Amino acid sequence: MFSKKIPVINYSDTRGKNFLFEIISSRQSRNREIISRVENILENIKNEGDKALIEYTRKFDLVELSEKQLKISEEEISERANLVDSDLKKAINEAAKRIEQYHEKQVSDGFNMETSEGILGQRIVPLSRIGVYIPGGKTVYPSTVCMDIIPAKIAGVKSIAAVTPPRDNLDPGVAYALKLLNVSEVYRVGGAQAVGALAYGTQSIKSVEKIVGPGNAYVAAAKRAVYGVVDIDSIAGPSEVAIMADDSVKAEWVALDLLAQAEHGTGDEVAICVTENREFAEKIASTVVEEINRSPLIKTFDSLPDDAISVFVTNSREESIGLVNEFAPEHLQIMTREYTEDVEKIVNASAIFLGPYTPVALGDYFIGTNHVLPTGGAAKFSSPLGVDSFVKRISVAEVSSKGLTNAAPHVSKFARCENFIHHALSVERRVGD
Fold first, then answer.
1. Where do the DSSP E strands lie in 96-184?
2. Beta strand pairing call for 231-232 and 240-245
3. Is position 423 annotated as part of the catalytic site?
4. Backbone torsion region of residue 376, taken as left when φ is above 0, otherwise alpha when ψ lies between -120 and 50, otherwise beta
5. What is the pLDDT of residue 32?
6. How far apart are CA 142 and CA 246, in angstroms?
7. Alpha carbons 320 and 244: distance in angstroms, whole number
8. Least C-beta-crowded within 10 Å: which of 33, 217, 333, 362?
9. Which fold has domain 49-234+387-391?
10. Chain segment 161-170, per-residue pLDDT in tens
11. Out of 269, 276, 330, 371, which one is annotated catalytic?
């Protein structure tokens, strides 16, 4: 039997607001403890390359590799891909189509505009080389292969290197997705050391311009540390869900959606429900316990922190929306009678799932939206992985002689005001020549 009680908290009380803050800050505190370890790992990868990569693989993954074994051969990828289950193969094919259709809508073209000075424009240029982190410690993620790589391909990225933690053999589903998307540069390394290899390069792995893909707390900390050396998608850490619900939806469905996030099992996930109805909140909490007691993962749930799954009761829908916007969750499900109106007031969420028939699992795998999402409150300022994650904008200007003459007095005024004399001279002496 499940040994814990699901907390039901009155959010309007000071204790209730503090409880949510403590849930979030406790995860961040654990992450801070990881940072110093990650910095040492990255420094060793930077200085020693393959040697450090192999040592950390031995230490953390308990796998002995030589330099030649770091890269997975195309033959091995093909052999493993041929072993994929036929139903999974069909699911990957269908999901890939939907992901492609959705992300093709995100393609942005450059532009040219004529001004009194001349022509101004913007070019959209794909990144040359990216690195993709494919999680694979506790389980395998062929879905992440599709989510990471399809938008990059649509953007026009030519060189893609993938890393994934070493297992006895490359998972057939992961192998099939890689082969389907024509990615053959794949390395059997994971964790912070893999992020370091992609960022700094080693004797076997050429450095990249951007690293994308979700991972555990060590991967997230490493991505944060190498930002600036390379670009990253976001700090995609442990999974989060907030569910805003009323009694128009079955308590069983809410319970299952909460458990769908908690079952990742690291203890750093956050799964909360927000409702204005105390009786409904208590029903959700008891239903979560019932579902856990019949789950094959009862031991996993029993090992989680007491606050891994929580239900908050607010005094109004406005307060519920305020809680959600403050939390800025990775996933937000809105299962209320007025969900089409409620969603208009949400400004902080990475991905929103509307109505009783749109669980997060659909977005995780199949419908086409991307599941590589900002977490830890980063939805307040960043976006899901998409085509624009793999391009850069370059501004272009061509000013005519007449345009320079028109602009020069204004430029000169600005420059001399800011004490940049040669900025001013560079335009002043061109006028009349």
1. 111-114, 118-126, 129-133, 159-163
2. unpaired
3. no
4. left
5. 65
6. 34
7. 7
8. 33
9. Rossmann fold (3.40.50)
10. 999 999 888 9
11. 330
What are the extents of the domains in the chain?
Answer: 8-30+238-380, 49-234+387-391, 400-428
Query: Would the pLDDT of 215 be above 90?
Result: no
Q: What angle do CA 108, 111, 112 make, to 5 degrees?
A: 180
| Domain 49-234+387-391 in the same topology as domain 8-30+238-380 | yes
* Per-residue pLDDT, 433: 67
Residue 331 annotated to the active site: yes
pLDDT at residue 398 is higher than 60: yes
Buried b (16+ CB within 10 A) or exposed e, 220-233: bbbbbbbeebbbbb
Q: Which of 337, 68, 55 is nearest to 193 (CA)?
A: 55
**Strands laid side by side in the 118-126 sheet:** 111-114, 118-126, 391-399
The residues that bridge with 92 in the sheet, in sequence order, are none
- pLDDT level of residue 238 (50, 70, 90 thresholds): confident
> What CA–CA distance (Å, rounded) separates 349 from 330?
6
- Mean pLDDT of the 211-237 span: 89
**What pLDDT digit, counting tens, does each position of 90-145 carry?**
999 999 999 999 999 999 999 999 999 999 999 999 999 999 999 886 778 899 99
User: Which entry of 103, 185, 291, 331 is annotated as an active-site residue?
Assistant: 331
Look at residue 353 and give its three-state secondary structure.
strand
Best CATH choice for the domain 8-30+238-380 from the list 3.40.630.30, 2.120.10.30, 3.40.50.1980, 3.40.50.1370: 3.40.50.1980
Q: How far apart are the C-alpha atoms of 133 and 194, rounded to whole Å?
A: 8
131, 212 Cβ separation under 8 angstroms: yes
Concatenating the DSSP letter of every residue in 272-337 gives: EEEES-HHHHHHHHHHHHHHHHT-TTHHHHHTS-TTSEEEEE-SSHHHHHHHHHHH--SEEEEEST
Mean pLDDT of 292-308: 92
Q: Stretch 232-246: mean pLDDT, rounded?
A: 88
H-run or E-run covering 208: none
